[in-house]
Design a protein that fits this description.
- The chain is α+β, with helices and mostly antiparallel strands.
- It has a seven-stranded mixed β-sheet with strand order 1-2-3-4-5-7-6, sandwiched between helices.
- Strand 4, helix 4 (about 90-105) and strand 5 form a beta-alpha-beta unit.
- It is built from five helices and seven strands, in the order E-H-H-H-E-E-E-H-E-H-E-E.
- Helix content is about 35%, strand content about 35%.
- It has a domain at about 1-105: Gcn5-related N-acetyltransferase (GNAT) (Aminopeptidase).
- Helix 1 runs antiparallel to helix 3.
- It has helices at about 10-20, 20-30, 35-45, 90-105, 120-125, and strands at about 1-5, 45-55, 60-65, 75-80, 110-115, 130-140, 140-150.
- The N and C termini lie far apart (about 40 Å).
């Protein structure tokens, strides 16, 4: 059974205990720390929108968006998962474009960086219509910038 809800602190703790290795490596690289709990917790607390999806009461992932300090129109989307994700990958993929649209409703510009080694999440952002815009090196690892802008209907 799949449940989606607003993220709670206990979800972050469960996520960190069971995080996918590529997600762990990404957060470790960005934070330059083996202890990823603090940066993930800080990011979650800054998020204006954060949801958790569970499979049989186990955290499969947490996603959301953090507003930019410099630009009120921009937000940084994030997705961190456990291996529970693989049990629901078809359902997750089917619904993720709607979730990105919810983020775009809040922030017409979505931009962030993704670890070039995180193949599953690279597929996810491409499927959701994000464009890779430029690369950046963080602690000797290549990260891809990704961007999506809300489409305005001017009929």
């Amino acid at each position: 059974m799949i449940v989606e809800r607003v993220t709670e602190e206990k979800d972050i703790l469960d996520l960190v205990k069971n995080i996918r290795k590529p997600d762990y490596e990404e957060v470790k690289t960005i934070s330059n720390s083996e202890n990823i709990l603090n940066p993930i917790m800080e990011g979650w607390k800054k998020a204006s929108y954060s949801k958790t999806f569970l499979v049989n009461d186990k955290v499969a992932g947490v996603y959301g968006v953090v507003g930019s300090i410099d630009n009120k129109q921009a937000g940084s989307p994030y997705l961190l998962c456990t291996n529970e994700l693989y049990k629901i990958k078809k359902t997750f993929i089917k619904n993720c474009k709607d979730r990105v649209e919810e983020m775009l409703f809040r922030f017409p510009i979505l931009f962030n960086y993704i670890d070039s080694r995180n193949a599953v999440h690279l597929q996810w952002i491409k499927y959701c219509g994000f464009q890779l815009v430029h690369d950046k090196i963080i602690n000797k690892i290549k990260f891809h910038g990704f961007l999506k802008k809300r489409e305005e209907n001017y009929n």
